[in-house]
Amino acid sequence: MIYTETVLVQDKIRAFASTVLLIVGVSPLEQLLEFFREKLVSLSMERTYAQATGRFIEWLSVRAHEFTDTPKRSLLYTAFLHDLRFGTYQAGVDAYGLNWTATSQQNAKRLTRALLEFSDWLNQRHGATMLNPIHHQASPADQLIFWRKWNKQKAASLLAHTKRRTRAEESSHRGRQARLPRDRNGFLAEAKAFPAERLDDLIWQGFINPGRKADTRPWVKYNLRDILITLLCTYGGCRPSEPLHLWVDDVYTDPDDSSIALVLVHEPTDGLVDYIDPITGSKRKTNRADFLQRFCGGRKPLTQETGRRHSGWKGCLLTHRERKAYQVFWIDKNAGRLFLTLWRMYIQYVRPVTPQVPWAFLTQDGQPLGVEGFDDSFRAAVRRIGLLPAKWAGTTSHGLRHRYGQWLNDLGLGDKEGQVAMHHLNAKSQDVYRQVGLAKVVAAIGKLTVTALPSFKDTE
């Protein structure tokens, strides 16, 4: 059996950016790295491509010989898809040594799409070097090319069932497709929001610094850093990772009310930054990746960091086109006032004075706080007030954004307003946050009066 593994390396060709390298046996799969350089996908997508390709290569090493006969070759992708979806165990025994367990239909689709996209690219770029892996000692890339080319010539695409076809076309392909079972059930996507009645406890009890309960100085008693992030997520609708990209100069006073904070969250790489040219003294503008590289000791945006410094960026509806930033819309103006008060305390008394580190939220040793570090602190705060950090209860950091979505419902905001408030690129994306829960459905139905209810008649 051929074993594969993925490692994270720095690609010199792409200015030492982090990239995923797939090791097949003892050799790197150079073609996959070439694919990444051309496509410029995110690090998480690189992991998906590497995982899908590695799984298929391992699977081929133990099962490809079963499809040596030409009539059976078109069944190879069907067999792979089945093993990927339902696992390789039969009656508790895995005869192949793959030790695959069943996975969800969604995950199976995700991996197979990635595999087919890479293998199609291999066909286009390296198809001329294709060898028959059944009769030759071919490389893993050559095997991918061979099987994909055969599959496209002799059978329908592995995911052809997801494309639209006429009835006649569908009938002609029915016997040759590798089909995933169709799930005809739907589920209520009830939003699990942080319980509103426990928010005061979370902020003023959960974030008390250990051993500092009796201190009268707010910046000593409380973990102001994580309270500020929590306010942005709860009353501003931010995802937990987004406030971590905030720089010290990204918080202003609202021109319409100087007691309220105006917060602009910039795109981590392309967001605009103003600076004074150290040579000419003139005001200039550049993007954040360039500023970090030139003026902050070669630092990188947190989206490109790894480990505990990493913070993701899902993509947002940017309300400030020139700055490539979105504005935080406070669902309660009092939260904006509280944020500004605590922000000033945090900057003056708490935040470490660290040169060349522009991020607002730092660790005690002056390094940018990553989403993993905030989540650890948030879970500890939830436990301090007697709650269990759990997704099903809405008591994770993402449950704060769900609370914001439920408040939008309470205010009666429409889809367009909700899309802008939650910074969604697609108006439909807010549905999961604004889904009405079972309790509200029961309460609404209970208020109805049924006029057509038949009267009870005594049958005796």
From TrEMBL:
It comes from the Bacteria. Keywords: DNA recombination. Residues 189-447 form the Tyr recombinase domain. GO terms for biological process: DNA integration; DNA recombination. CDD domains: DNA_BRE_C. GO terms for molecular function: DNA binding. The keyword Chloroplast does not apply. The keyword Iron-sulfur does not apply. NCBIfam families: recomb_GmtY. This is Phage integrase family protein. It comes from Pseudomonas rhodesiae.
